[in-house]
Amino acid sequence: MADNTAIVPFRIDVPQAELDDLADRLARTRWAEELPADPGATPAGPVPPGWEYGVPVGYVRRLVERWRTTYDWRAWEAKLNAYPQFTTEIDGQSVHFLHVRSPEPDATPLILTHGWPTTVVEWLDVIGPLTDPRAHGGDPADAFHLVVPSVPGFGFSGPTRERGWNRFRVARAWAELMRRLGYDRYGSAGNDLGSFVAPEVGRADPAHVLGVHVTQVFSLPSGDPAELAALTEEERGKVAFADWFVQRKGGYDKLHSTEPQNVAHALADSPAGLLGWSAQLMGEFLDPDYVLTNVMIYWLTNTAASSARYYYEDAEAVPPTQKVNGRGAEPLEPTTVPLGLANFAWDFASIRTLAERDHKNIVSWNTYDRGSHFAAHDAPDLLVADIRQFFAKLR
């Protein structure tokens, strides 16, 4: 059956009954038990005191109380609805997206891909400066027309309804979305899982993608001792940190990639549980309303299961020499579309030597002394400037 290619205006309008049900569930939260804090404990690695075992009860209690009593979903709903939103069907899947055109007619089209456990909310703080630099003290030549989709299985795109929605399929969907919107030449950018998707957009649609901007390059050692020996001392330190993260902080990734449905039952039934599970990456250093709004969207759309399932689909992606279940061959050769990286201080430490193994056209590589994995929220000025300078080289 052919897709319905219509682009339909969309507006968020959550029934009050759903908000009342959420408030009732939050009021009846059954709290987890935990061990008392050990003031003499020395956490392994950069773990905040009290977070050695994971997200502490005190943090979840504080945010649940805020969620239940003072957090204003209707204000955030209105903030989101201030941007033009649409849905369309691509490859059998509903795709929700913000489409914010610049007042500058010659602006560069750019598609932004969020990660987990975030949503399109991840990009709200950069929409104004990117689309209208003239109004934010910038050069109008740096303007972008923005397309900000919800990844299939996430947020207002709703749950996926069939297998196979991995990074490659999402990238092909994004290429079709940009074609459907009439953009012949465009850029692709992303964070977190968006940093996996964005380069694949360039690989899927090289004739139309100007360049790819990411905040992480997830290139890790292949296991070849000679490759590891060729790294600098600083780069070997980054490898050691990546190993630590996988071993001590990567439990969510392992579970999502192997048996995501195991945790999905709890996340779909308990808003406090969904908050705790999401907070393992967002933590207490981010604005609590930013955390709650992202969690709120997963709750309202019941996409905890399908967003976790994305990791399984990505782990099971078909190698390039095989064609199974019609999913097709997925290329693994180095990318050739121009690539730019903005690496922030409290984030995955991208390794240039290994990145050059997987991407043959790196034209911009910048590191910053502030900002986190959620730089679009906590260092938007740096991210905006980096995106601007990267694409200015390619226009």
Question: How does this structure look, described?
Answer:
The chain is α/β, with parallel strands linked by helices. It has one domain (54-392): Alpha/Beta hydrolase fold, catalytic domain (Rossmann fold), CATH 3.40.50.1820. It is built from 16 helices and 9 strands. A 9-stranded mixed β-sheet has the order 1-2-3-5-4-6-7-8-9, with helices on both faces. Helix 1 runs antiparallel to helix 2 and helix 9 crosses helix 13 (304-315).
Helix run count: 16
Percent helix range:
40-55%
Shape: globular
Distance between the termini: 38 Å
Kindly report the name of the CATH homologous superfamily.
Answer: Alpha/Beta hydrolase fold, catalytic domain
Please indicate the percent range of residues in DSSP E strands (runs of 2 or more). Answer: 5-15%
Kindly report the spatial arrangement of strands forming the biggest sheet.
1-2-3-5-4-6-7-8-9
The CATH topology corresponds to Rossmann fold
- Derived from helix and strand composition plus strand pairing, the structural class reads alpha/beta
Low-pLDDT windows of residues: 320-330
Q: Can you tell me the CATH architecture?
A: 3-Layer(aba) Sandwich
Mean pLDDT: 93
Radius of gyration: 21 Å
So what's the oligomer here? single chain
Q: How many β-strand runs? A: 9
Protein name: Epoxide hydrolase
Family: Belongs to the peptidase S33 family.
Pfam families: EHN
GO molecular function, one term: hydrolase activity
